[in-house]
Design goal:
Blueprint (H helix, E strand, L loop, with lengths): L12 H16 L10 H8 L3 H13 L3 E4 L3 E4 L9 H32 L2 H19 L5 H15 L2 H9 L1 H12 L4 H17 L3 H15 L3 H4 L11
Antiparallel strand pairs: 1-2
Amino acid sequence: MTEALRPMTKQRLYEQVLERLRQYVAEGGLRAGDRLPPERDLATRLGVSRASVKQAIVVLEVQGLVEARHGGGTYLVRDSLDVEPVERLVERRRRLPDVLEAREALETKLAELAAERRTDDDLAALRQALDHMEREIEEGAYGVEGDRLFHAAVTAAAHSSILAEFMRSIADQITESRNESLRQPGRPTRSLAQHHAILDAIADRRPSQAATAMRRHVRTVAKVRLLDWDPEEDDSPTA
């Protein structure tokens, strides 16, 4: 059945709240670090339930646009609320578990093989990737490019053309999972530390430890707010 003829849906109420919040931030000139009004005030001013406001805030958190501090309000992480369409988020949430499952299977084996087969040039590439990631994090970024370079270097160090082809075939989905993971609070520095553990095992030619370290890392990657989000939690449509 063609996607064009899928059932029509009405916009969820929290999606309207998202649009109003985006306008509020733009028109008010708010910037990263500024605080949004409390959920109770937003609900009153927008004439919606607090549950709808809370769901909208969760969507903004999932996208790394705001940080909700326990007992301390909600703060902008970026200078704008350029919200990704909710249906796109829902689709990414649907496929992410399969991507993470594939990553664990493939990358655990790649790390094991890298520990057996790596060359001095491979080690140099791995270290350069982590240096790059560390610089990115020090500059306030998420370390996305350094992360990509490191996992690519592990793949290269395994010297397995078939496994490398499998990794290339899901490169776009891996990029999605990487971006999703690294925008979790505190995740870039944690990922960097886990990468160092993987590198140490590869450098010391310890295949089973390299596989274990990679498995632990990919399972950390899988811990993202997106998978805890229920897009139907507030499914009150507009009239």
